[in-house]
Amino acid sequence: MMMDDPDRVPRMLExxxxxxxxxxxxxDWVDAYHDGTAFGSxxxxxxxxxxxxxxxxxxxxxxxxxxxLGILQAGVWLFDLRRLLxxxxxxxxxxxxxAAESRARKHAEMRLSLQDRPLAARGAAVAAR
Length: 129
Hints:
There is one protein chain. The protein is mainly α. It has helices at about 10-20, 30-35, 40-50, 50-65, 80-90, 95-115, 120-129; strands at about 40, 70-75, 75-80. Strands 1-3-2 form a three-stranded antiparallel sheet. α3 (about 40-50) crosses α4, α3 crosses α6 and α5 (about 80-90) runs antiparallel to α6. The radius of gyration is 22 Å and the shape is elongated.
């Protein structure tokens, strides 16, 4: 290896950068929250068709059974859609899961349509409530 090569370090850095760009992006909870596959207990309750208190009790019981529906941080549940839908199917059956999937889709569509509105229109919609 020649230490006198002034282009050695830039070439190595470019090679490392190329390898990093090829790696698949790792998804995390922030990505999941933004794409609507992770959400709080209010949204989980809408999807489940029950109250937020009920969905939190279910989450506590599922976590105690070693099958968590999400994570509990600082007393706030952050639910995972896939886990929640699987729990519904396991405990309430396939029709309940299909109904929950429909509610999840409707909620996601509503959320996306609100995000697509210009900021001024969103403010007017919130003020009208």
